[in-house]
Amino acid sequence: GAGVSQTPSNKVTEKGKYVELRCDPISGHTALYWYRQSLGQGPEFLIYFQGTGAADDSGLPNDRFFAVRPEGSVSTLKIQRTERGDSAVYLCASSPYRAGELFFGEGSRLTVL
Amino acid sequence: DAKTTQPPSMDCAEGRAANLPCNHSTISGNEYVYWYRQIHSQGPQYIIHGLKNNETNEMASLIITEDRKSSTLILPHATLRDTAVYYCIVRVREGGADGLTFGKGTHLIIQP
Fold this sequence. Notes:
The complex is a heterodimer. Chain A is an all-beta fold.
């Protein structure tokens, strides 16, 4: 079956611009996670959704980062006024239930020039 | 901070068993040990998890010491495709924080 799909796979933007990254989870998975991974580091937790609500957004680095999941399926990670330090691979994962095994997408590579 | 300690890198010959150690000396009684791996340019992939008993599936075996302070992931017959970064993670399965906390993992290189 289809796995977690993330778009775009690559995004190059200029400092100060607004960016949206999309995640299509596995159908029926209620839990959805966003992670960020810098070069040479393990993935860093950003936010977790259970259904439509953000159950844990403690990993969002600042208020420039925001994520939504309005219908409990597709999620969008939104980054305002991008900075060069935001350059990373943004990973999305979904799980069939809370605290279940996570299924990751291939990631969206963001480069801020 | 990650609650596990892993060697940064390991080599293993193709066809041999790869044994990846993980130290989790502060693990709580309700925390499970999970292993994920990440092949270059891909998202992490779930491998196996366990609480206190040894576990085996089609990918690997997980050996947890009796005191649960350490564990070993075993890939019985390593292939070149097993070259990846392997992450050992401890996590409460029910009622705890839901996000996985990744460390830097072990970069396993399978040599032909």
